[in-house]
Write a structure and sequence with these properties.
With 207 residues, the protein is of the alpha/beta class. It has one domain: 3-Layer(aba) Sandwich (Rossmann fold).
């Protein structure tokens, strides 16, 4: 049975969030207002298929950091649908599960970075994924978009998919840089929410 959900348009922001930073939050809020979405659901990845060979932080840490970062925005919520599973986190499965949870009438937009769109045909069950769900890709100002726009045009023709492109200034921030700065003992203040910064130091993450 579907969970009662008042909104009809939701954005799903997936990622490892290791850690979540202001780039993720600014992208989500701009997408929400630009496309008139009712809610943004953050979904920390459980076992991300494209990063299985990499070492990522414990699921619980990444989940709690995401909760801390989003708790003050009533339009944001966090789902443990992936971190609570021991299966590989495929985007199609997650979106299908969320649709079953919130009802077939809810329109779902998957939010991602623009670079992921260039590689999206390597994702599991590409045909069903792209033909069933809409995508919103965030890109940095000044980022070369010619290849990206050409790729999006090709995907639209090939899969009849809906992919929107949105320029977001804060996307120059990266989780990789934040982890490196923590390891090097450099400041990460203002790159991430204060609550997340304190959580990282308290739990001695990225040392």
């Amino acid at each position: 049975m579907a969970v009662c959900f008042m909104g009809k348009r939701i954005g799903v922001m997936g990622g490892t969030f290791d850690p979540i930073h202001h780039g993720h939050l600014v992208l989500s809020e701009q997408v929400r207002t630009e496309y008139d979405l009712d809610k943004i659901i953050f979904v920390p990845a459980g076992i991300p298929p494209h990063k299985m060979e990499l070492s990522i932080s414990n699921n619980i840490h990444r989940y709690f950091m995401t909760v801390l970062a989003t708790i003050n925005n009533e339009n944001f919520m966090v789902s443990d649908i992936e971190v609570g599973s021991d299966k590989v986190s495929y985007t199609l499965n997650t979106l299908q599960n969320l649709r079953r949870l919130y009802g077939k009438e809810v329109q779902i937009f998957f939010i991602t970075g623009a670079d992921a769109i260039l590689d999206i045909e390597s994702w599991k069950d590409t045909v069903e994924l792209l033909s069933t769900f809409s995508f919103i890709a965030g890109t940095r100002p000044g980022h070369k978009t010619k290849d990206l726009e050409q790729k999006i045009s090709t995907l639209k023709q090939k899969y009849k998919t809906k992919i929107h492109l949105l320029e977001v200034p804060a996307l120059s921030i990266s989780s990789t840089e934040i982890r490196s700065r923590v390891k090097a003992g450099k400041s990460i203040k203002y790159l991430i929410p204060n609550e997340v910064e304190q959580y990282i130091y308290k739990n001695r993450l990225y040392k």
